[in-house]
Amino acid sequence: MIHTPYKEASKAEALTELGKALIQAHQWQEAEQVIRSISNEASNVQALAELGRALSQAQQWQEAERVIRSLPNGENKAEALTTLGKALAQAQHEQEAKRIRQQAASIRREANRISRLLPDKMRAEAMTELGTALAQAQQWREAKRIWREAERVIRSIYNLASRGEAMAELGTALAQAQQWREAKRIWQEAEQVIRSSFSNSYENEKAKAEALAELERALIQAQLWQEAERVINSSFSYTFYYEKAKAEALAELGRALIQAQQWQEAERVIRSLPNGENKAEALTELWKALARTQLWQEAERVINTLFNEQSKAETLANAPTKFGEHGHAVSLIQREWLRVTSRDEALALFPLVCGLIPLNPDIGVELFNAFTWVDSFLRG
Question: Residue 93: left (phi > 0), alpha (psi -120 to 50), or beta?
Answer without folding.
Answer: beta
